[in-house]
Every structure is written in C-alpha cells, then in structure tokens.
Amino acid sequence: MKLNELSNKKLIIFASIIGLFIGMAILTVAVGDSDDKKDGDSEESEMTESADKQSETAKDSVVVTDALEGDPFEELESLIGLGPVKEEVKSLTNFVKIQQARKEKGLKQASVSYHLVFTGSPGTGKTTVARIMAKIYKDLGVLKKGHLVETDRSGLVGEYVGQTAVKTNAVIDSALGGVLFIDEAYSLTDAGKNDYGSEAISTLLKRMEDDRDNLVVIVAGYTNEMKRFIDANPGLQSRFSRYINFPDYSSGELYQIYLMRAKKYGIELTDEASTFLKEHLDYVVAHKDRNFGNARYARNLFEKTLTAQANRLAKKGAKSATKNELSTIEKIDIEAASKSVTY
C-alpha cells in the first residue's frame, strides 16, 4: 500500500508539473495575443481620434493667427484704400494713449471699451484690420499676446443641448490674451427661437465680463444686420459702443489690388490688358450686388488670369515659353478670366 501510494503521489506531482508548464505556455500565448490586440486597438483608436479631430476642424470654422510682427501702423498704411478705417483706428489709439497718460498722472479717465463692431460688405479688409488691432492693443499693453482667433457661427454653436456653451467657452479660452473675431455675428440670432445661438451670446457676454482685462471681441458683418444684432440685446449694446464702417472698394482701388498681386509675382500687363482690366472693373463695380467680394474678387480675377495665361502658353509648349512671355499678362488672359469669376 505504501509503495502504491508513493507511486501515485509521484504521478500526481509529475502531472502537476506538466500541467504547470502547459498552463504557462497557454498564458504566454494569451498575453501575447492580448498585447498585440491592445497595440492594434490603440493605433486604430489614435487614427479614429485623429480623423474625428480633422472632421471637427473642417466642420467648425476656427482659425488662430499669431500676433502680427513689426509695426502695425505700417501694416495699416500699406493697405490699399480704407481711408476712413485708418482714421478711426488712429483716433481710437490716440484716445487709449491719452487715457493711459491720465491714469499715470493720477487723473480721472473716461471709460474705454476696446470691443469693436466692424460693418461692411465681404472682402473689405475686416479680418486684416482685426489682426492689426490685436497687435496695436498688445503694443498698448491692453493685451498680453495680441493673437487673433477668427470664427463664425459654426465655431460657437452646437447641434445639441449642452454643446454650445462648451464650444463657445473653448473658443474664448483660445482667444484669451488676444482678439476674438466673430464674422457674420448676426447669424447667431437669425436662426429662430429654438436655436442655440442665444446661448452662445449669453456665454460670450459672461466671459467678456469675467475676462474683461484679458479679452477683446470684434464682431463683424453687413451694416444693417449688425445694427439690428447689437440693438436687439441690451448686453451687446452696453459692451459694443464703437463702430468702424468698411466702405466698398472703388474700381480704381481694385485695379491697384490686382496690380499689387501681379507685382508680387514679377508679372506685368500689356497696355491693352491694362486698359481692358480698368474697363472691366468699372463695369463690375457699377453692376455689383451686396454680395460682391471686393478685394476677394480682384484676387480671384488675378488667379484666374494666371490660369488663362498658363493655358495659352501651354499650347505652344511650356518649356519653349520665353522669360518675357512668362512674365507678361495679355488682354486675352484677362478676358478669359473675367468670364469665369462671378461678381
């Protein structure tokens, strides 16, 4: 009995050892498969997250631009046209400087609202001037960073309950120390009573108060629409008291913008092309509607002109084109471009 019991114990121990080795082997394979799956899931998750972020970026219009380098007033003066706008910006700057000087000397200061309403048609330089204002405010010590965060309704308003305040606060957070520029701001109230635009406005007004020493807001859009937008809300009325109107460009100013683009690329116009361009811009300005793109139209016309020139030169062979041909725009090029650009 004892011999048999000993033999049985040895068999049990042996079987246990074999079982242990088999179990360890199975565990190793299982862990390996789990790690491989985990790595694969992690990579897929990162790719999905990246795709989601790209989708959000494409859907929501939020553009962050670093602070302007150099002298903002030189940049302002370099802009074609916009005479009244330049004067308004200078007057505001002088007013702020004088109030700062009074404060330093212990005198009472008039209240200063740095928030602005830009009114005017599309393509009249509102975004460009907003960036210049951000740098001016930084140089004056009003803002710490002087960058510009540009957005519109889609960047502030969510599709479901609870999204809008989160989105609006996130955009405002990114603008702290700089200027938040809201284009077509009137669209926040144009979608109806059941829309979340009013929530975005309420969130904005609260943050303008809470972060009044670290945030400047500029709202922009068509003149009449912006007036109704501001007048419809007492909170907006109290915070936006200074308006700057951006006039449409004249045909002569659009001609200068076109030439400036051409000069940038070392391109000249023939006399016939120049004459045709002037006549075409005169006609366009005389027949424009409220959606006319102003400077945007001149830039688009120039880009289409380059395409027309390229098509013309390609017919004879791009490599055979002379340096003079590559640097010259002819009347036929602008004629072709004018037919493909809407105004």
DSSP, total strands: 8
Biggest sheet overview = 6 strands, mixed
CATH topology of the largest domain: Rossmann fold
Which strand-content bin applies to the residues?
A: 5-15%
Going by CATH, the architecture of the largest domain would be 3-Layer(aba) Sandwich
Mean model confidence by pLDDT: 85
The CATH superfamily of the largest domain appears as: P-loop containing nucleotide triphosphate hydrolases
Brief synopsis:
This protein is of the alpha/beta class.
Describe this protein's structure.
By secondary structure, this protein is an alpha/beta fold. The protein folds into three domains: 1-59; 62-246, Rossmann fold (3-Layer(aba) Sandwich), CATH 3.40.50; 251-338, Helicase, Ruva Protein, domain 3. The chain has 14 helices and eight strands. The strands form two sheets. Strands 1-3-4-5-2-6 form a six-stranded mixed sheet, with helices on both faces. A two-stranded parallel sheet has the order 7-8. β4, α7 (197-210) and β5 (216-221) form a beta-alpha-beta unit. α2 (72-78) packs antiparallel against α4 (126-139) and α11 (271-286) packs parallel to α14 (331-338).
For the structure shown, list the relevant keywords.
343 residues; Rossmann fold; 8 strands; alpha/beta; disordered N terminus; 14 helices; 61% helix; globular; six-stranded mixed sheet; single chain; Helicase, Ruva Protein, domain 3
Q: Helices, strands, pairings?
A:
Elements: H1 2-59, E1 62-65, H2 72-78, H3 83-104, E2 116-120, H4 126-139, E3 148-151, H5 153-156, H6 163-175, E4 179-183, H7 197-210, E5 216-221, H8 223-231, H9 234-239, E6 243-246, H10 251-264, E7 268-269, H11 271-286, H12 295-314, H13 323-326, E8 328-329, H14 331-338
Parallel strand pairs: 2-5, 2-6, 3-4, 4-5, 7-8
Antiparallel strand pairs: 1-3
Helix pairs in contact: 2-4, 6-7, 10-11, 10-12, 11-14, 12-14
